[in-house]
Amino acid sequence: MNVQGVTALLETLKVGEGDASSLVQAVTAEPKSIGSVIKGLTEQAALPGKGPEAVSATNALKAFEALCNGCMVIAEPYVTASLEVLLLAASNKDKNVRAAADSACMNFCAKMSPDNLRAILPCMFANSVGGKPFQTRALCLNMIKSFGENAPEQLGFALPQVVPEVTASMSEPKKDVAKAALEALTAACEVIGNKDIEHMTGKIVRSIIAPADVPEIMHALAGVTFVQSVQSPALAMVVPLLLRGLRSNLTATRRQSAVIIDNMSKLVDDPIDAAPFLPTLMPALAFAADTMSDPEARTVSERASKAIERLSEECEQAKLGSKAAEVPKVLALLKTKLANNKLDDFVLTHIASMCCSLMERKKFEASEWVEVATYLSAEAGATKTDSILDSFRMECKEMVKFVLPPDDDEDAAEELCNCQFTLAYGTKILLHNTTMRLKRGHKYGLLGGNDSGKTTLMRSIANGSVEGFPDPTTVRTVFVEADIMGELSHLSCIDYIMQDERLSHLNREEVLETMATVGFHEDGKAKPNNGVSTLSGGWRMKLAMARAMLQNADILLLDEPTNHLDVINVAWVKSYINSLTHVTCIMVSHDKTFLNECCTDILSIERLKLKHVKGNLEHFISVNPDAKAFFQY
Asked: Which helix (DSSP H) or strand (DSSP E) does residue 534 occupy?
């Protein structure tokens, strides 16, 4: 069907004689007509009168719903742009128009791409505020509720913006609006994805409509053991309750709020997640600390306030390297890739917005961009889409990649490594989008809590599985292990070294010469031809060091190098490491004296990031007192 035929169908809809299904078929056959079709339907849907105008508006809204059902990929960009007209039609004086508007909007939410939520939320927020017709406000809130099922991940990501907007309508005198707001917030609570507090969601919502219950709810929340990492959806739900707790007249409630804030702040892996909440949380906590009359409660509040201040500092630092997903930049990249000026900018802008939704949530797997491919194929064709999508996706990833702020390190030492990576053990994320910079000759102490990933990081470096780490042909890395593998325990010391495939190019004389430098002599306490099973812990460490020396390592990785060694051998290890002026060391140790005497820098694993501080352990603890927990002081 040509454009004239489509126009004729629109005319029949105006008088109630048209068939919406025929319109869908016509648009499917002639996709380029969708712009003019939506324009005509939008004008009809906005008609305010009764009688014929109401019939025309009702039919237009039904046509919108039919288009959403029958050809959403083609229609979505245009329906999105007309959404405000549909929302306002929900307040029409004619009940049939109102019913058709409700049905069209709810159907649109169910059928659209979940990644379109980013684009329509501003329109829904603008039409859910006081001053707008109550029917429109209730519809907006019901649509937000529906996203708990239709776009749960996207709704969870948007909760920092959604919660304040919905909360503002919960005290609305109009029962329909207040009821819709309560249901929307309850649905939003279901997508926070935090098992520690998911059983508390009903109580958290109740705290908004029943302020008198805040002390009781705070008491219940204080009994929660927080284990799971805390992300922005959970913060969006809990922070309003914590603010109410801090403003309570009861000292016990204010204290409980401070304790929860302190505990949760330590479980925020990505400081950026806390950014929307810090401007209100920090002054409220500081005020609570200042006004506490009870000394113990004041101390608790001050401790929490310091924890939040540290989190704020980390957040500001993270912002320096963070890059936002911007539709104009993504659109420009997409148009460059397509290299076709005849394509519709309006549709491509919509697709760019969908891409930004994925980019903001760090979704870059090919399987997560299938829907983008579907929408882009409808506009540019499947062949062209397939040819550009992978490179486009990777360039979008680079567009929002964290950039390390300029390093103020004036050390002229050679840079061995400067890479950004993510590290996981099974399904557990240990480090996320963190940066590691290593310089030749520096001695790095690696700190972190239990199960934070210290040994996994070193083994991953040794195995070459850290993204961006230099190739072994460029930077030679050796994991120094003093443990003797059982199947090799029958070998002599020299044969133990010689069996290493990485040393197959060496002859026995070269190996014996190096072993002698660490104390292996035929007339000494440890003989090269004696069995490795006869060696003490100290001599096993020396043997491991000799093997590492023979590999001409640029970087040595040492895991508890002084464990089970006597004073003399510990002193030898310290002296040897300090003598390596051209070799970089990364060391995990619980021996604070060793770290003080050998480290030039400290790397600490905090909130899924690798933090770098110049100086030894003593200096590190002076600026990070919490690190005392890693040692016995």
From this structure: none
Q: How far apart, in whole angstroms, are the C-alpha atoms of residue 604 and residue 235?
A: 25
3-class state of residue 482 by DSSP: coil
pLDDT at 194: 84
Alpha helices in 266-294, H assignment, sequence order: 278-291
**Mean pLDDT over each residue of the chain, to the nearest integer:** 88
- Which residues have CB under 8 Å from 65's CB, separation 6+? 20, 100, 103, 104, 107, 108
pLDDT at 1 over 50: no
Q: Give the pLDDT band of residue 100 (cuts 50, 70, 90).
A: very high
pLDDT band of residue 409 (cuts 50, 70, 90) is low
Residues of the chain with CATH 3.40.50.300: 415-630
Instruction: Go through the chain and tell me how many residues it has.
Output: 633
**Cβ pair 551, 516 in contact under 8 A:** no
Place of tokens 């310089």: 439
Output the pLDDT for position 201. 86
C-alpha distances out from residue 29 to 22, 39, 64, 346, Å: 11, 18, 17, 20
* E-only strand ranges, 272-413: none
CATH assignment of 415-630, given 3.40.50.300, 3.40.640.10, 3.30.70.1150, 3.40.920.10? 3.40.50.300
The separation between CA 301 and the C-alpha centre of its own chain, rounded to angstroms, equals 29
pLDDT bin (cut points 50, 70, 90) of residue 8 is low
Question: How many Cβ atoms sit within 10 Å of the Cβ of residue 340?
Answer: 12
- Looking at residue 225, its pLDDT comes to 80
> What HEC string does 26-79 produce?
HHHHCHHHHHHHHHHHHHHHCCCCCCHHHHHHHHHHHHHHHHHHHCHHHHHHHH
Stated as kind and residue range, the H or E segment containing 439 is strand 428-439
pLDDT above 70 covers what percent of the chain? Answer: 94
- Which whole number is the average pLDDT over 569-583? 89
Distance set, CA 556 to CA 409, 441, 497 (Å): 22, 10, 17
The architecture (CATH level 2) of 327-399 comes to: Up-down Bundle (1.20)
Please report which residue ranges of 435-550 form alpha helices under DSSP H.
Answer: 454-463, 493-498, 508-517, 537-550
What distances in angstroms separate CA 323 from CA 432, 434, 468, one per listed residue? Answer: 15, 14, 20
Which of 463, 414, 460 is CA-nearest to residue 437? Answer: 414
Q: How far is CA 294 from the centre of its chain?
A: 39
